[in-house]
Amino acid sequence: MAAKKSSSKTTGILIPALVTLALLLGAVYIAKNTSTPSGAVEGVGTGYDQYGYNYTAMMFQGPADGVDRNLDGTVWGDPTYAKDHLVMKWSKAWNDARYNGAAWTPNAWEDNEWNGKVPGGSGEVWHYKISWVGSQLQSSPYWKAGGYPIWGQFEVIFSQGTTANQHFWETHANPAGYGTY
Fold first, then answer.
1. pTM for the complete prediction?
2. What crossing angle do the helices spanning 11-32 and 92-100 adopt, rounded to 10°?
């Protein structure tokens, strides 16, 4: 469920942004709906799994192929981004709300760092910062000027990247840091 962008954004910017955000949403959904490996205690010494997730460290790191928890040389059936390197990190507040039923707070954030400048990769590089702001979105006291809404309660506060050897600043909220200010 990606946010609509203004019509002035080029397709070259929109497609990588939507792909990365779709990956993030899918990864968070899968992470929430995947049981803990047999014999492991969630959050205690589980380390990285074969896909690249480390729930103890609250991160994913590895080829994007693993983000969909299916090591088949594709990301949800598309090989374009499978070899790209992806690092996702999320805060304790995000972890507690998403996986443990705690209330969402403005300290809930997620970070995506996408690197397609690897052998066989897409060639695209993107960085996203996403924070919870609540269902009021732009009217929320946590909204930061310059961001855009996504997923009904979140704001993309930072989005920049390179595609076709051109750098784009898609979003740079002020301030672009996480949490309350």
1. 0.71
2. 60
